[in-house]
Amino acid sequence: MQRLFENGLSLKTQIIGLILLFAVLSFFARLVVSINTTKEYMQDQMGSHAQDTATSLGLSIAPYLDENNHIIAETMISAIFDAGYYASIELKDNTGKVLISRTNPTTIATVPTWFLEYFPLLAPTRESQIHNGWQHAGAIYVTSHLGVSYQKLWQHSVDNFYAALITLLICLGVALIILQAVLEPLKKIARQAKLVTQKQFTLYDEQPFTKELRTVTLATNNMVRNLQKTFSTLTQQTQRLTAEVYLDELTKLGNRRAFENHYLARCRDVTNDAPLTLFLITLPSLHNMNSTLNYQSGDCYINEAKKIIEEAFYHVNDCKIFRISGGSFIVTSPLEHGMLNDKKTQLLKLFSQPCKNNYLNGFANLSFQTIYAPAELSSVLSALDTAATFSTKTNNNPNDSTKFSVQQWKTIIHSILETGDISYTMQPILNTSNSQPYYFEVFAKFNYQNKTLNNGHLFAMAERLGLTVELDKQLIRNFTMIKTLYPERLFALNLSHGSIYDADFLGWLKLYAHTNPCIKHNLLFEISETALLHNVEAAANSICLFRSLGISVCIEHFGTSLTSFKYLQGLDIECVKLDGSFVQDLTDNVQSQFFINTVNTICHGFGIKVLTCLIEDTNTLKILHQLGCDGLQGRAVQAPTKITEEQASFSFDFPPNTLNLLN
To answer: Residue 392: helix, strand or coil by DSSP?
Structure first.
């Protein structure tokens, strides 16, 4: 019942219920009134009939009341009584003595007992005085029999019931047809409103016949048009700002500012277990081509190099490509260089294919470096540039092999799938509206032989071996045991690219959710924007499945694609999390502040919450709160903490200095 009140009843159901209630009440009221009216009529008829019989019989037997003719009177009374319409007939003399008496049993076999109880008839008795000349000779008493009256009343009630029932059904059928026609436009309006909440703008041009509904339809269409216009205007404005600030005009890749923000966001968390590899690709023949041919040829040269780089790194997850200057490209990857040997080989092979006659100094130079600790960007770029100057094939890292072979990785992954050796840390997102945790992002750490593995390397090899989906399944299975301890806490898990589009995973999740209902409440999946843009339509279908299971969705690394936000239209998501690169220089970059403010305006218009991450200082935290972000995450808010199955519960309070900044 509580769930019924929460979800509400449709207008159609309420109207149909009301019509049925009135129809049933009217049906039974009419039936009862009709039966009672007929009953009163039958009661009067029996009284009238008994009186007429008594009067007629009294006059007929008056001359035969003496002892000699007594048999004639008795014969006349018996003849009348045998007709069967009387319960009793009695003849009494003037002293009250019964001279003649005839009676019939009162049982009525053809009428149900309940009908006799609810609609009782009283058998009327009528009398007629008998006179012999001027002398009072006696009286005759006639009592009507109830059997015939009850039979007629019962038959009338049955006929009236079926007639009223047929009329009721016909009227209800006609009413439902009319109601369906009237409410169909309203159903379309409700569907249109629901689609708007799902970020889909649909117009209904068909105008309903009902005047009031026509007005509502026109108003709803105008509202949807205005929302769509506002969204289009804001997305165009954001796209233009993004292009001016973060995009290279020729290649549409991220420019140097975008690269610097991205590097600063990633560099702070670089460790031996989470390295960052940078590839520098330079075009040594660009200056010669621009001076000897024309700038158009140079632009073609740059775009050809861009195409080769994108082709080589297409299947590398979380890989970013930037053009930082005229003939220089930077590629970043969370994998160490040893894991990217095949990409280096592929690049060198592709660079050697273009016709050498057009590129006097070679097509491209390649250098790379993996950093395992935070480093100044200038020193990293200087080392990359020096290495590129000497040789395109120089390995400027001492170790050019991965820690494990492919076969060893296969063994490791299967071991994790069998043992489920996964540990978890969590970090809260501060809800700026109530200073409480919005949700807790869960970070999984996969362990092998008591050592924590690099997640980037693990999932890269799992994808290569076709085991990414199995890792995600194991991660969810393990986390379910923790989730049961905290059913009221909202947790977020990161879902890999492969699982979003894998039919086997989606089917497994649907079945697993039904057998483990704890994950159907207070669970959220974080999906990378890069993974979502791989196939927006298919991702939208997967998101619909997640929502049908009660699992919310957040798009993380939002804005890194540096494209239009129009793909948000039609996605039923809960929130977006801006990429950390947008907050790195926020205190000094007015354009970044304007960008985040515009994103807030667009997403809030859709009912989508905007979250930010990698907040490392209180000034940035305060600015983001002033810009209207709904959630804040980072070490300036709260550092990640470990969570285990052994904990019976955990309480959480944000540091007072953090809350003071928001008040």
So the answer is: coil
Cβ atoms < 10 Å from Cβ of 239: 17
Place of tokens 């003071």: 660
Element (H, E) at 355: none
Sign of the CA dihedral running 438, 444, 450, 455: negative
The predicted structure's pLDDT at residue 500: 92
Selected from 3.20.20.450, 1.25.40.10, 3.40.1360.10, 3.30.460.80, the CATH number assigned to the domain covering 409-662 reads 3.20.20.450
The span from the CA of 634 to the CA of 427, in Å, is: 8
Burial class (CB in 10 A: 0-12, 13-18, 19+), 543: buried
CATH 3.30.450.20 domain span(s) along the chain: 43-166
Q: Give start-end residues of each CATH 3.30.70.270 domain in the chain.
A: 269-390
Q: If 0-12 CB within 10 Å is exposed, 13-18 middle and 19+ buried, where does residue 283 land? A: buried
Amino acid at 280: L
93, 79, 76, 42: CA torsion to nearest 10: 60
For the CA atoms of 309, 310, 312, 318, what is the dihedral angle to 10 degrees? 110
Amino acid at 176: L
Give the long-range contacts of residues 110-114, CB within 8 A, separation 24 or more: 110/151, 110/154, 111/150, 111/151, 111/154, 112/154
Fold of 269-390: Alpha-Beta Plaits (3.30.70)
Tell how strand 609-612 and strand 575-578 pair up.
parallel
- Whole-number percent of the chain with pLDDT over 90: 16
Q: How many CA atoms lie within 13 A of 114 on its CB side?
A: 0
Contact 512, 463 (CB under 8 A): no
Return left, alpha or beta for 533; rule: phi > 0 is left, psi -120 to 50 is alpha, else beta: alpha
- DSSP letter string, 146-175: HHHHHHHHHHHHHHHHHHHHHHHHHHHHHH
Provide the token pair at 238. 């954001």
**Residue intervals in the chain for CATH 3.20.20.450:** 409-662
Asked whether 597 and 604 are in contact (CB, 8 A), the reply is no
Provide the 8-state DSSP code for 198. T
Most confident of 150-159, 184-193, 353-362, 500-509: 500-509
Q: Residue 396: pLDDT above 80?
A: no
Tell me: domain 43-166, CATH 3.40.50.1370, correct? Answer: no
State residue 322's pLDDT score.
94
- Report the predicted TM-score, pTM, of the whole model to 2 decimal places: 0.69
DSSP at 400: -
SS3 per-residue string spanning 518-542: HHHCCEEEEEEHHHHHCCHHHHHHH
Any idea what DSSP says for residue 244?
Answer: H
- Closest Cα to residue 359, out of 311, 280, 297, 279? 297
CB atoms within 10 A of CB 581: 25
